[in-house]
């Protein structure tokens, strides 16, 4: 299939947004029942990760700890002032690969896919391709 | 091929377990000689990475430094008490993609695939799919 | 296609090297117009990431902050003295998956692919496979 994309709107400087529904919908529309699904974030101050959705405290803790380890201000050279977001983007990563079986994303019981905003609020894009 | 899986049993809170043999065996059974192999961990307090196996001090140092950078206790909100494991899971990542040529995983001289336990000991699953 | 590879020479202990041109050239030679491209680094003290190329201060800041978070000397056990490089390799990761459409790598406006040297200077290899 050709890549599909969807748009999301973050509302905070740092925010994890569950995108399971949008990715599964694109998978449904592809008609592909077996393969792999690539989720790719075409931004350099955002990322994608898989983690727990059941308790929102988990993503809250991930966000807080990343902000502590990679402080927003730390004598960075980049004039735009968002170097911390670029660093977190490289640590978390621009893509995830998820297995597809019987037309479903194969995720563990507690796993959800999260778009990671590190320099919001912004309008963002997510690319999805199933092979 | 449909995904295959295997089970491993971690014995420590934080532990890296070499899974080269299990992944290569699934590749052998698939009969696929050329493509890519996706290794996916369906857990939110574990991950998969590729690093050096020759000297066990390397994974020992990775574990110790990750525990220093992301301390086990740091005023986390998540009541289950394993937020550090969730954070490390997102930093290291839930999947690895490895090239396959002539029926073999194409790894560098010093590379091995490690299951990363961050909240053990537990019984864990690893999914493998070759395309 | 079978995997292709190219060689690069790093000149500093820690260095990010833009490899967009080499990866796109291998994609061109493959003749594949639609699929996914896997970039894989067969080393345990190097990695690959996607980040901003427009302002070189961005990769400069990423390098400096990674060196601050994962110090080069921190009572590591590994005798070779490059444990920090191994740790950074696992955090940034050995592979990137990039979508391919119409014979082009689908990257965001500000995204470039960087080989990440964490224990240079060295001669290094990068594997590329398009499916």
Q: What letter string, H or E per element, gives the SSE order of chain A?
A: EEHEEHHEEEE
- Largest interface, chains and sizes: A-B, 33 and 31 residues
What is the C-level CATH assignment of chain A? Mainly Beta
**Amino- and carboxy-terminal Cα gap of chain A:** 7 Å
Number of domains as seen in the coordinates of chain A: 1
Query: What is the radius of gyration of chain A computed over CA atoms, rounded to a whole number of angstroms?
Result: 15 Å
Tell me about this structure:
The structure is a homotrimer. Chain A is α+β, with helices and mostly antiparallel strands. Chain A has one domain (about 1-130): YjbQ-like (Jelly Rolls, Sandwich), CATH 2.60.120.460. Helix content of chain A is about 25%, strand content about 35%. Chain A has three helices and eight strands. Chain A has helices spanning about 20-30, 55-70, 85-90, and strands spanning about 5-10, 15-20, 35-40, 45-50, 95-100, 105, 110-115, 125-130. A five-stranded antiparallel β-sheet of chain A has the order 1-8-3-5-6, with helices on one face. Chain A has a three-stranded antiparallel β-sheet with strand order 2-7-4. In chain A, a hairpin with a 2-residue loop joins strand 5 (about 95-100) and strand 6. Chain A is globular and about 50 Å long. Chain A starts with a strand and ends with a strand. The mean pLDDT of chain A is about 95. Chains in contact: A-B, A-C, B-C. The interface between A and B is medium-sized, with 33 and 31 residues.
